[in-house]
Amino acid sequence: MKKIAVQVDDLTVAYNYKPVLWDIDLEIPEGVLMAIVGPNGAGKSTLIKAILGILKPIAGSVSIYGKPYEKQRDLVAYVPQKGSVDWDFPTTALDVVMMGTYGSLGWIKRPSQKEKKAALEALEKVGMLPFKNRQISQLSGGQQQRIFLARALVQDASIYFMDEPFQGVDATTEIAIINILKELRKAGKTVIVVHHDLQTVPEYFDWVTFLNVKKIATGPVKDIFNDDNLTKTYGINYKVSIQE
Amino acid sequence: MNSAQIEIQLIASLVAVACAIPGTFLVLRKMAMISDAISHSILPGIVIGFFITQDLNSPLLILLAAITGIITVVLVEHIQKTGLVKEDTAIGLVFPALFSIGVIMIAKNANDVHLDVDAVLLGELAFAPFDRLFIAGTDVGPKSLWIIGAILLITLGLLFAFFKELKISTFDAGLAASLGFSPALIHYGLMTVSSVTTVGAFDAVGAILVVALMIAPAAAAYLITTDLKKMLLLAIIFGVFSAISGYWFAHWLDASIAGSITTMLGLLFLIVYLFAPSKGLIAVMYREKQQRIEVSLLTFLLHLKNHDDIEERHVNHLNEHINWQKVRSKTVLDLAQKNNMIEIDNKIVSLTEKGDEFTSKAIDYIITNEDAQIEDMKDDFFLFRG
Ligand SMILES: Nc1ncnc2c1ncn2[C@@H]1O[C@H](COP(=O)(O)OP(=O)(O)OP(=O)(O)O)[C@@H](O)[C@H]1O
Ligand SMILES: [Mg+2]
Q1: ipTM score here?
Q2: From the candidate CATH numbers 2.60.120.10, 1.10.3470.10, 2.60.120.260, 1.20.1260.10, the one assigned to the domain spanning B3-277
Q3: Domain ABC transporter spans what residues (chain A) (predicted)?
């Protein structure tokens, strides 16, 4: 049996005392490329934020390779959902990617040439090197998404959390991104992606979690990605007429 | 210049620098209003501090008043969190309440408090040099100079130590939190520095000038640069410039120094707002005009590319075919010729090799919206500058 990369036990999260995630138990094995699916407002972003300690749960616990998140920060990289940052902030693409290195630097210490080199390599990887000095609001939506991917890559983590990386990107960029994600999996990393396009789940991912306030199901795509679970998650009588 | 004049300008300049630093981050966090709230609601803190210490320049008083500033921020956030009202409403609820408590406390104790509301709001820089600090009997300079100097040193130290943390938590609080840089800690740190600076400066320059010095230079700098370090530096330069020019303006008019500095800040912002290189009003209007011309140019080049027959390419026919007025046709023709994109031979216009290539690339861009291919064209053409 594979190691467990992320373990969530009895997790309940609330905004202003109104729970939006109820009693979630979840085990994510190492080395999977996993989709989290569920309708808008299902709590997908909230789940990721709670795992990463950005939100404090009212009950339950999270562990990364058996230890609390605070001890394992260096193992984890995060690409937030678009719109969670200030696009008019005076900063360049390169600078944003460099922020990925801040975690390993810790408090007070400043980035040096080494961090800059890593950031440039990550930009190269996502095909954004020509735009390195561009102010970020002057990039298109898909380009902004690539910058955030580069920022996660530069963290050189073991586990990647990505909140809707395909939002508003064109087909070419989507393929470019998924190829990078598949490469990460090949390198033994665990990748967790909030995903809205149900059509592409079987093609892109090997693991899936259905979420709607509660956890509906989690497991290998080939075993559990079916009409039954989709209906339970999305409420309506769902028919997947998409697979083989 | 006599020594009092130099001291006044020095105090005003130090206050300007001390305000510009937290001000830059307040502007970036879209929290300009909070500085207004802090500057008013510290009044009860100052009064209570004064009862206890009997000295307007005591560090304890500064601390007490700064705590009132933090309480303001906490109250505003608490009210906002109920979800019943927006942030600006919450600010509007909190600071008048605290401010009026301060006013009542002053009024009730008018006899034994040497303190009035006007002094707190407007300050009086002109008197700052008279309140001197003596160490072991020797005069070491005005008290306000020492107070604001100490605050500035602390602010600078914090800025250098936590620049990266301030940057990341302002830009992307989620990432900052996931990397272990507590955005809440940094938020309250910034609020504390803003409060301490406000209190430390109010005696010399008054609460209103503090707000102006925090917000106006940073807002002007924001219009000019897309680099955080340059923004900080520009905000500092603008602040100091307004402080010194405001002083001489007041000297010339024989008016209030704080009022003149505020006026200078207003003027400076107006000038930057109009003339800033890319975000300024005039630059934006110029760019829009250029873009119109360039769209016309492109339309014209496309027309040439699509039509081989001489008749369609005759200068005189342009007006009818593309349906432009004379002036516009001339501007477009001149622009195309200046860029070696067309040749005019016997009044017949044809594309040069460069023009042909440019047109193909431009069409590609418009169709695919793929930026990389036209990176090299950007300097010449506004149209492609997103
Ligand atoms: N800061 C907040 N304060 C209060 N309620 C919130 C906050 N953020 C999210 N919520 C609520 O929590 C629930 C879950 O939100 P969440 O952002 O996790 O959904 P999601 O599954 O990511 O949705 P989407 O697909 O739209 O991104 C929603 O009902 C939302 O309204
Ligand atoms: Mg979401």
Answers
A1: 0.83
A2: 1.10.3470.10
A3: 6-238
